[in-house]
Design goal:
Shape: elongated
Largest sheet: none
Mean pLDDT: 80
Radius of gyration: 17 Å
Low-confidence stretches: none
Helix content: 55-70%
Distance between the termini: 29 Å
Strand content: under 5%
Number of strands: 0
Length: 84
């Protein structure tokens, strides 16, 4: 992992979508893209570690702290999972 902080993609997307769109349309488009990407990343994490609703399950037993941590992290990324 690099020491360079990742830029916030939201203002970049709003700027890109602003061309030919109203500010509200640009904001909506940026939010939609970010939410879809977050859901994709969460599902990639779940699939990679074999947790959640994936075809290949994790190697460890039910209740494994590591797998619960991975699933919890994916849930934090996923905008469709209600946050406590």
């Amino acid at each position: 992992m690099s020491g360079t902080p990742a830029p916030d993609p939201h203002p970049i997307l709003v700027g890109l979508f602003s061309v030919g769109h109203t500010p509200d349309q640009a904001e909506h488009a940026a939010k939609t893209v970010l939410e879809q990407h977050a859901r994709y990343l969460a599902n990639q994490q779940r699939a990679h570690f074999g947790v959640g609703n994936v075809p290949v399950k994790a190697h460890c037993a039910e209740g494994c702290d590591f797998c619960r941590g991975v699933a919890s992290a994916a849930d934090l990324i996923d905008p469709e999972v209600p946050q406590p």
